[in-house]
């Protein structure tokens, strides 16, 4: 009876550990592996090695598990025959059923559930144990690797896609790991490269611009309470914008008694970008040139609008950054309203669903306003 119990316990214990190691190893996420690797510890290095070449530790686990099941079944069967000689009910039915249920529950369901749900706590134990069992099963692993290597095809990529990361952000938000704003920023960042300048710009029809020959005094008189810090200036029309002026420079010049001078004396060159430029590229260009504003040019070279760093940041955050003096938050919405009213005055039927078309990912307007003559 003692020998039967020993074979039974040895089989179940080793099978339990193998299931625990397997579930824990397969559940450890790549993000955790990279975090541990960056610490420079031996634990992180081994974890990265096992996850990169997961076939080798899995082969060691399965080899040990198969040996435990086989030896345990043979040993328990032989011992049962000696304990209950001639009793076919015990040796042919009861013992096999008990052994099967024990393996199913004690060495499969319970350890795999624990390994999958408590992988972080089990990871250090798993890494240290795998190092030992790989050494113990090295000869068998060498033979197994030779056989499986010839049977393997091209290894499939396990790179995490943008869709996977967006889904992970949503899942983290639902589980309370990320708050709403953090989840929004993550999902917007993943879709950042698909957003074009024309989706976030201030359209030409509502952008503020002034004639470069206008005097500083006249400009201030006609723009009392101006809320924009940068104003594009043109020669004869908005299609001839080559520069912009800072509101602070205008106020300083007026304070110094230079209010009779034209705005052109304060002008700074303005960067021009195409309306179909991706906003990550726009942001890089703005940062490289230390600029906060750019002129948006349409397909035919005309002015389509202006875009700022603020527009890009709003897109990323999913929020409208409203200055304390702002009375209008969305200039694209204003432009759409103006176009709708103009169409109605001309007797044209307007489909508001088409006019207010938005991006399914970021909630940004996906329609630019065509240039109009000034």
How do the helices and strands line up, and which of them pair or pack?
Layout: H1 2-27, H2 30-37, H3 42-52, H4 55-83, H5 88-117, H6 119-136, H7 138-151, H8 162-174, H9 180-190, H10 197-200, E1 202-203, E2 210-211, H11 216-222, E3 230-234, E4 241-246, H12 247-255, E5 268-269, E6 271-274, H13 279-288, E7 293-297, E8 303-308, H14 309-317, H15 331-345, H16 352-355
Parallel strand pairs: 2-3, 6-7
Antiparallel strand pairs: 1-8, 3-4, 4-5, 7-8
Explain the overall architecture:
This protein is of the alpha/beta class and 374 residues long. Helix content is 58%, strand content 9%. It has 16 helices and 8 strands. The chain has a 4-stranded mixed β-sheet with strand order 1-8-7-6. A 4-stranded mixed β-sheet has the order 2-3-4-5. β2, α11 (216-222) and β3 form a beta-alpha-beta unit. α1 packs parallel to α5. The longest helix has 30 residues, at 88-117. It is rod-shaped, with a radius of gyration of 35 Å. The protein starts with a helix and ends in a 19-residue tail after the last helix. Residues 321-328 and 342-374 have low confidence and may be disordered.
Q: What is the CA-CA span between the terminal residues?
A: 101 Å
Q: Order of SSEs, N→C? A: HHHHHHHHHHEEHEEHEEHEEHHH
Number-wise, the strands total 8
Biggest sheet overview:
4 strands, mixed
Q: Which runs of at least 5 residues are low in confidence (pLDDT < 50)?
A: 321-328, 342-374
Whole-number average pLDDT?
Answer: 80
What is the number of helical segments per DSSP (H or I, 4+ residues)? 16
**Percentage beta strand:** 5-15%
Computed structural class: alpha/beta
Global Rg:
35 Å
Apparent shape: rod-shaped
Instruction: Identify the strand order in the major beta sheet.
Output: 1-8-7-6
Tell me roughly what share of residues is in helical segments.
55-70%
């Amino acid at each position: 009876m003692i020998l039967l119990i020993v074979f039974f316990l040895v089989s179940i214990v080793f099978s339990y550990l193998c299931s625990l190691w397997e579930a824990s190893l397969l559940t450890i996420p790549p993000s955790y592996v990279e975090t541990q690797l960056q610490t420079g510890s031996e634990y992180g290095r081994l974890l990265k090695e096992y996850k990169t070449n997961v076939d080798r530790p899995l082969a060691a686990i399965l080899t040990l598990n198969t040996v435990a099941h086989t030896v345990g079944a043979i040993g328990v069967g032989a011992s049962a025959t000696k304990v209950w000689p001639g009793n076919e009910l015990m040796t042919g039915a009861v013992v096999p059923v008990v052994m099967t249920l024990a393996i199913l529950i004690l060495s499969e369901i319970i350890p795999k559930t624990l390994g999958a749900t408590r992988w972080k706590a089990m990871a250090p134990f798993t890494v240290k144990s795998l190092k030992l069992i790989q050494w113990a099963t090295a000869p068998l692993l060498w033979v197994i690797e030779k056989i499986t290597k010839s049977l393997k095809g091209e290894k499939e990529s396990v790179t995490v896609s943008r869709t996977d990361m967006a889904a992970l952000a949503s899942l983290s938000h639902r589980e309370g790991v990320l708050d709403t704003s953090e989840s929004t920023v993550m999902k917007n960042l993943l879709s950042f490269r698909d957003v074009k300048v024309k989706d976030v710009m201030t359209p030409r029809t509502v952008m503020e611009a002034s004639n470069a020959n206008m005097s500083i005094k006249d400009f201030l008189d006609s723009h009392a309470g101006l809320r924009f810090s940068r104003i594009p200036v043109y020669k004869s029309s908005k299609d001839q914008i080559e520069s912009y002026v800072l509101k602070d420079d205008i106020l300083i010049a007026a304070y110094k008694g230079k209010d009779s001078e034209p705005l052109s004396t304060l002008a700074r060159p303005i960067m021009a970008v195409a309306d179909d430029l991706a906003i990550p590229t726009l942001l890089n260009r703005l940062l490289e040139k230390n600029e906060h504003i750019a002129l948006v040019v349409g397909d035919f070279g005309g002015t389509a609008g202006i875009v700022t760093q603020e527009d890009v940041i709003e897109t990323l955050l999913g929020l409208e950054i409203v200055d304390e003096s702002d009375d209008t938050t969305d200039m694209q919405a204003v432009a759409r309203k103006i176009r709708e009213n103009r169409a109605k005055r001309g007797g044209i039927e307007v489909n508001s669903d088409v006019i207010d078309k938005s991006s399914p990912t970021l909630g940004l307007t996906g329609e630019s306003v065509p240039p109009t003559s000034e």
